[in-house]
Each structure stands twice: as C-alpha cells, then as structure tokens.
Amino acid sequence: MMFRGAAHAVRDAFPLLLTRSQYCNPGLNFSSVWTEVVNRSFAMHSTYTTDAKSREENKKTIESLYRLSVDIKKIRRLKEWVLLQDVAYVKEIAGILQEMGADEAAVANILERCPEAILHTPAEINSQKALWQLVCQNEKQLIKLIEQFPESFFTTEHHENQKANILFFQELGLKNNIITRFLTSAPNIFYNPVEKNKNVIETLQRNYLSLGGSDANMKIWILKLLSQNPFILLNSPNAIQENLEFLQKNGFTDHEVLHLLSKLKGFIFQLTPATMQKSMFFSKNVFKCSDKELKQLVLTCPALLYYSVPVLEERLEGLLKEGISVAQIRETPMVLELTTQIVQYRIKKLSALGYDIKSGTLESLNGTKKDFEVSYGKIQSKKERPIFNPVAPISIED
Known about the structure:
Blueprint lengths: L1 H19 L9 H19 L10 H9 L4 H8 L10 H10 L4 H10 L8 H11 L6 H10 L1 H4 L5 H14 L3 H10 L8 H17 L4 H14 L8 H13 L4 H10 L9 H15 L3 H10 L2 H4 L2 H13 L4 H6 L8 H13 L16 H16 L14
Helix pairs in contact: 1-2, 12-13, 12-14
C-alpha cells in the first residue's frame, strides 16, 4: 500500500528536521516539528506517483467522500495520490470515527487533513484505536486527539513497537497524559524497538549517577527530562556519552555537567562535540575571555553552547545595532537567548518610557514574555508614580 511508503518517508525525514532544530529556541514545540515532518514527507510521496495525471481517480472513493461532505478539491490540491488508489475504505473508517463520537463535521475535517486514513483497513484502525485507549481516559478524549492530530493516529506502522513502548513508558512511571502528548507530538519515539529506548534510558540513568546524582532523585530527574524533551530517545547511547565526555574534557565538573543537562532540558544531546566546540570558540573570541571565564559564561547562559555560530552571530549583530556594547552582553549573556525581533520589540517599548538601554543594564530585556511584562510594569509604575516626600511641610495658602 502506498501509504506505507509515506510512513517510511516520515521516519527518514524526521532526524534531518530534528538536527535543524538546534538553530531554534530550546523550548521546542514538538507538535509543530511533527506537523512539518508529515507535510514534507507526504509532499515527497506525492511526487513519487509520477503518473498521477495519467491515472483516473477512483470514482467510488470520490462519491463516498462527497456523501460525507469532505472537501475533495482540498484533497486534490494537497494529496491527490490518495484519490488514485484502487482500494479505499471511506465508509468503514468514517464509521469507526462516528462510533467513537465524531460528528459529521469532525469526520469531514479529519479526512480532509489526513485523507490517507481511508487507505487503512478497518482492522488496522481498530488496532490503533485499542492501542491509544491504553492511555486515553475514554473515547471522547481519543476522538478529540484524533481531530487535533490525525496524522499521528493514522500512522499505523510499527504497531508492535508502539504497544511495547507505551507499556514501557507506563512501567517507567510516565503518566498517561504525558504519554498521549508523546503520541501526538513525538510519535517517532514509539517506532523504535523498545530495547533501543531502554538502552537510552539506562545510559541516562548511569550517567546521572556517575555525575553525582542520587538514587532517590534519579527517577524524578529522568521523568522530568523525558517530559521536557522526549526526542532524547532518538539519539544513540554513544552520542549521549560523547557529548557528556566533551563537556568533562573542557573542564566542566560533574556537578556542572549535571546542571547543564537540567538547564538545557536534554537538548544538549541533539548537538555534537564539533558544533559545541565551534560555538564555544566563537564566544571566547567575541568576549575575549579565558577558558575559566568562558565556562562561567556557559553555565550562566547555556545558549552559548546550544546555539550554532550563525545564530549567535545574528543575535549579537542585532544587539550591537541597537547600540548595546559587547561588555553589556558579557555582563548579561542570557539576552542572547532572545531572537533579534524580540529584542527590538522590547527595546522599543522600554524606550517609549524613556528607559535608555544603552547606558543601563540588560536585565530588563531578559526572560520570558511574562518576565518582561513584570519588569516593564515596574519601570512604568516608577515613571508614573508622583514624587512625594512624606516628611516635607505642606504648603497652605491663607
């Protein structure tokens, strides 16, 4: 079945996109990454059907979709190859969705977004349904997830691996709501043989203890790390080991390495010793600091280790164009965690209050959107508050 080829394309495309994610904020949006993978992979698959225009659409499929109020033009535009297949299970798949509680509009929306669903047999979809019910509270929650993430649900490849990994994650102590989040936003981790995922977890556990972590806290640390970044499981145990050894060879103590792992939420494992070396060398040259000083800067702002040289260059140039000095950036390196657009926006807002960022501290620029709003609010209140001396005499006119 042609859909199976598409599923393999997803699997092969994902590591490439994940590698590219190192140029983005560590607060990675898993759902957006998976959506991009699916879109790219099926776009590639559509080109695979080179004789698409020479083949006729399946009239029975078209009629069945039309009766369900599905926008066929949308499918033709995005995934026409689905309509060319000789065998499709439109009524059957729609029936299964309706049995789970999906109304007519929901069914049409699901099939428009993921028309390849109709190429699966009812048996395959019922098996997938039973699988997801292992972590879903009820069918109402399940159909809601399918509406939001149809591509994840209808990727039925590696069924046995998916089941084994769900059971493994439950045994590990991950809550079902976290596992459902993984299924929808990071489904590739379920395609690995369960032994591979176990090896990665064992590597993390072993290193956590060797770096000074305690047995009592290990489970909590592992579960938190996985919850923050399940894509850790796409790395090999050897790659994890190499990155940790790189940090130790560059003078970071065991306690400091453990600090970096927690601060970066495991995204450090998506890097390589070569990329980390380049980023550190760039920072050392820019800030003209010693190895000891550089290490302290990295501990203060792990982004100096995580972001690639092009990203750091772009953000540094953006700050310098605003009149901010290298000395100011070195004093508050966390400002490099922000994109140039965010920095410009925040500087503009502060300038409107008369705050001169060039002569002041960069602390007011730092942090999340909420952090900035708090800082901005304090500066605004201070500016608007009338000057009042409680001990000054009151002038009274006769």
